[in-house]
UniProtKB/TrEMBL annotation:
Domain named Major facilitator superfamily (MFS) profile: residues: 57-451
Domain of life: Bacteria
GO molecular function: transmembrane transporter activity
Protein name, entry field: MFS transporter
Natural source organism: Brachybacterium saurashtrense
Amino acid sequence: MGASAPSGAVSPRAYAGRGPPVTDAPGVPTVERVTASPPRTPAGASPAEPRRAGARLTLTIASLAMIGPFSIDTVFPAFTRIGAEFAADEVALQQLISAYLAAFAVMSVFHGPLSDALGRKKVMIGGLVIYLIGMFGCVIAPSLGSLVLLRVLQGMSAGAATIVSRVVIRDLFDGAEAQRLMARVMMIFALAPAIAPLVGGWLLLLGDWRWVFAGVGLYGLAVLALTTALPETLPPADRTPLRLRSLLGSLVHVGRSPVMLRVAAATAFGFGSQFLFIASASIIVVRLLGLGEQDFWVLFAPLIAGLMGGSWMVGRAAERMPRSRLITFGFVGTIASTAVNLLLVSFLDGEPGELAPVLLLAVTGPALISFTVSLFFAPIQLEAMDLFPHQRGAAASLGTFFALVLNALLAGAIAPLVSDTLVTLGLTALAFALLGTAFWTWHMLTRPARLRG
């Protein structure tokens, strides 16, 4: 057996499984070293242990990823009661979401580099503790202003769970197994946007709106308990110095890399072709389709089904197709699915608000787009992290930040401008798919030959 784990370390036997674990090869963390790094050996691992992700690890990573949707979507059903208690209108209540998202976006830049310096587990646990303080603080919030400030605290800390958990996957696993685990996590994660509003509604049956924050806080406690059992996947020898200059230097080094910028742009624009429909959901469902405020499931159910189906396909293809080829297939498929969507909605007859009778045509396209986007979304995140084997946290953080910025522009500026009809929405989705594919093609043509395949 291998060397015993140091004090406080947790053996990864319950988490991993296939092939002998190998430590990172030494080297200078520059972008020129664009080779996929083998997975690290967590403390306490035996070099003879097989490495395969178990159900417990999958559940833990998925639970960490679901912190984001549960922090946002469970709150929506409570808006009416919060507004009644604090005499707040819809604009004021929207601050509960925008404050969380703004704080999440700003801090998303730093969670990854902090995990490169302190270790993955410390950052995730520290972030969860701060998140829980903010969540349970909402239970006793005396005013809307204090509620908004506590939501800022939640947003600042939630990324420690959602972003760093993805890096743990790549730390523990390489190649097909990393892709397979990422796909399983995405399948479970896809359920969160559908479940969260229902959970929020059920919690309101117990009492006032404070029960919603208490319930999500209890979920956070359960996730914290699962996280404490995770192994630390970044050995001290592989960490970057904990100095402000080093942290900022890591971000600058990754962020100024043309290779990283191309992959981040491909990810953001490609995902934007799907997120456009999420950002325009209220316009599509109520104004364009003429449905009611309780009918959002009509759009979100196909989107979630497409995401789960695509993620399942990614897991199945892990050992059958090289990662880069699967990503290319996903981008080309997204061009095709957005084109099919545009063709379908061009056949719709009737004015906006009178399209419910032909609902199937309107939602088939978004479901197909969600399916094809999920074919590249998980694998391309692994691609970005493999560009910087010693700065995976920084790569994950910056990739998330770029996507959040584009999503904010989509929700706040682009979606309202292009949502006059389903046709204009379809044209915009096709444009985003073309842009994402162009950046990915550029990356494929310029990256080192040893990474192609």
